[in-house]
Amino acid sequence: SMLYRAKKNNFFDADEEDGNKTGGGIPHKFITLENGNIVYDEFTELYWDLTSSEKMEFMQAQEYIANLNAKMHGGYSDWRMPSLEELMSLMEPGIPHINPVFGEPNSKWSRDRSSFSSVWTVAFVEGKSYNISDIIIDKDQLMAVRGKPAILSESQLGKILKESDFFCKNTEWNASYANPNGAGVNNAYELSQDGKTIFDRTTGFYWTQTLSNSMNYEEALQYIQDLNTDKFGQFNNWRLPSLKEIMTIIEPEEQGNGMHINPIFNLNNQKFVNTRERYSIGVTWCVNLNGGFLVRCPYRFYSGVLAVRDESR
After folding, report:
1. Distance CA 254, CA 236 (A)
2. pTM of the model
3. Measured between alpha carbons, how far is residue 44 from residues 157, 254, 283 in Å?
4. What's the pLDDT tens digit per position in 282-301?
5. Cis peptide preceding 96, ω within 30 of 0
6. Bridge-partner residues for 298, per DSSP?
């Protein structure tokens, strides 16, 4: 449902009955391209077209997109109508309810149908996505989109955990992807002379020895950038770990520190560690070190960060 999408991603929706007024929205980092005709969002990895300013019928919107693709707008031919979830990712709790880089906060078409002849539209003036527009007679604004963030579903996650024999504790709500019999990796850790980094001879990964202070996803990306700017441990190719990378250091058995991670790591009082993998447009996968299982973390959820690097990148 629409409300489920809003709450799942912490999207804001001002509707009294079916909205999510406590949603904080998700962070964005907008970059304008093509003389301001295209806006790229580094956080959601989506490109938005700003050339369509007139209100139009649904069929006209589809024709407009066909023309964008025919002329390779911005060098691409994969423009499409946005999903409701993609449009809602732009919703801001404050007024106006969409960043001024997108111009007037008018109602925008989505491609998601609420019935045979009606689709969801997002009304950025009111901060609501409850409107339903008739595809035959109504006119709304179009904002074409392209690009797609890499999403890791529960079924894909379960497949990765089992194929790689990674441990993931079984709880009452993660049975679809848990792997409680996973053996994990037989790590061979070496602490650097300065104590700042850990090298795992088994996987070839280098890790920061100490988890960061608690921070949200936006701050985590800045933290990684700062490590590289400062050449932490004399290197500038640190990154947020992928799910496969972080799971190589998760232990099947609880360690002496009460956590499912080797005590060679300084956990800095953190129980959660973030990854760069997404469950949805505004939610990443995190590891609960205390329980040894994966959880879904909205962008604004606070967790620790372990940075990783290897010699190939």
Report:
1. 33
2. 0.79
3. 20, 35, 10
4. 899 999 999 999 999 988 88
5. yes
6. 283
CB contact at 8 A, 136 and 147:
no
pLDDT of residue 305: 97
Cβ atoms 289, 272 nearer than 8 A: yes
What is the DSSP secondary-structure string of 145-177? EE----B--HHHHHHHHHHTT--B---TT-TTT
Is residue 17 scored above 80 in pLDDT? Answer: no
Give the contacts of 4 (CB within 8 A, at least 6 positions apart): none
Task: Give me the residue label for tokens 């770990």.
Answer: 241
Task: To the nearest 10°, report the CA torsion of 213, 168, 277, 221.
Answer: 10
Q: Which of these, 152, 312, 172, 176, lies nearest to 235 by C-alpha position? A: 312
Q: What is the pLDDT of residues 35-86, one digit of tens each?
A: 889 999 988 889 999 998 789 999 999 999 999 999 999 999 999 999 988 9
DSSP codes joined into one string, 183-205: ------EEE-TTSSEEEETTT--
Q: What phi, psi does 39 have (nearest 5°)? A: -115, 125
| Structure confidence at residue 219 (pLDDT) | 92
- 3-state class (DSSP) for residue 4: helix
The rounded distance, in Å, linking the Cα atoms of 165 and 176 is 16
